[in-house]
């Protein structure tokens, strides 16, 4: 299941501009996902400091979850970008896994202004009523705010990385083109195409030649929503512009192969991608 289908024909919705103070995150898995709890990875918080915080943004604050080692300071920092299902337990666990590896990891609920994902059961509704309403420019500003929060809370601004899954993988390409202070980026099956709108006027493919840091892309060869030809096109565009990009395509993997709480999970490919991600961050100065 591709959790962000291609977006042709999406309508533009007016964005409600209001002050926001969100008090909590999604406690479990959003109802729109088919859960396979038995295979889900559960990372404890022993030796870690974890919790929910509020990240100041331009019009209020957004809820976020962070994890870091209990001892030390000036930690290498990774911004973890959610799928379309919110900052639920899988995303929190991903933060804890990174914290166990020595990082300060923080995942912000970037769609909090647009809607409450925890009560939505239909992926089409999520895309129409929430995802399509999020301006890319606002997303970049929110990511900048999250990076600033991390830098003020024991993160090292000079060692900043980003990783994201599905829609978050798309935004990883965008943020790698936006923030000149990023050291490295890792996009997990981020959609590269789609129909531009007024709020989201570019595709990730458009960003490929504008990257400002090395980017690793991890993709599934059986992902029906992201054609292999499109992946190669993004890689070629980036390299033609002199950018550092490495693309890994797992031939038998579907979309969402790292999402251990869903049937799409592929353990061997997910573990290989995780090792590659950590090595990428180390190679390019995040670790």
Task: List the SSEs and their pairings.
Layout: E1 20-21, E2 48-57, E3 60-69, E4 75-81, H1 89-100, E5 104-108, H2 123-129, H3 136-151, E6 155-165, H4 167-178, E7 184-188, H5 204-207, E8 215-220, H6 228-240, E9 245-250, H7 267-283
Parallel strand pairs: 1-3, 4-5, 4-6, 6-7, 7-8, 8-9
Antiparallel strand pairs: 2-3, 3-5
Provide a descriptive summary of the structure in words.
The protein has 287 residues and is an alpha/beta fold. It has one domain: 3-Layer(aba) Sandwich (Rossmann fold). 28% of the residues lie in helices and 22% in strands. It has helices at 89-100, 123-129, 136-151, 167-178, 204-207, 228-240, 267-283, and strands at 20-21, 48-57, 60-69, 75-81, 104-108, 155-165, 184-188, 215-220, 245-250. Strands 1, 2, 3, 4, 5, 6, 7, 8 and 9 form a nine-stranded mixed β-sheet that branches. The longest helix is centred in the C-terminal third of the chain and has 17 residues, at 267-283. The radius of gyration is 17 Å and the shape is globular. The protein starts with 19 loop residues before the first strand and ends with a helix.
């Amino acid at each position: 299941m591709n959790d962000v289908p291609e977006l042709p024909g999406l309508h533009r919705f007016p964005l409600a501009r209001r002050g926001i103070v969100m008090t909590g995150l999604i406690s479990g898995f959003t109802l729109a996902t088919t859960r396979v709890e038995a295979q889900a990875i559960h990372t404890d918080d022993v030796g870690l400091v974890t919790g929910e915080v509020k990240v100041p943004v331009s019009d209020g604050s957004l809820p976020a979850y962070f994890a870091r080692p209990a001892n030390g300071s000036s930690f290498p920092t990774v911004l973890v970008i959610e799928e379309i299902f919110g900052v639920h337990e899988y995303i929190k666990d991903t933060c804890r896994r990174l914290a166990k590896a020595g990082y300060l990891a923080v995942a912000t609920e970037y769609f909090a202004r647009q809607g409450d994902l925890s009560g939505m059961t239909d992926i089409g509704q999520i895309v129409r009523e929430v995802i399509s309403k999020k301006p890319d420019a606002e997303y970049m500003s929110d990511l900048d705010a999250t990076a600033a929060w991390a830098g003020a809370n024991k993160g090292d601004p000079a060692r900043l990385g980003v990783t994201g899954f599905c829609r978050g993988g798309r935004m990883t390409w965008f943020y790698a083109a936006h923030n000149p202070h990023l050291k490295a980026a890792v996009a997990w099956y981020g959609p590269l195409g789609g129909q531009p709108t007024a709020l989201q006027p570019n595709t990730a493919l458009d960003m490929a030649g504008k990257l400002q840091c090395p980017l690793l892309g991890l993709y599934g060869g059986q992902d029906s929503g992201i054609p292999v030809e499109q992946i190669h096109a993004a890689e070629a565009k980036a390299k033609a512009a002199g950018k550092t990009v490495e693309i890994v395509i797992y031939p038998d993997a579907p979309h969402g192969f790292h999402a251990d709480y869903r049937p799409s999970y592929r353990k061997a490919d997910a573990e290989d991608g995780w090792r590659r991600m950590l090595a990428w961050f180390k190679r390019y100065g995040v670790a």
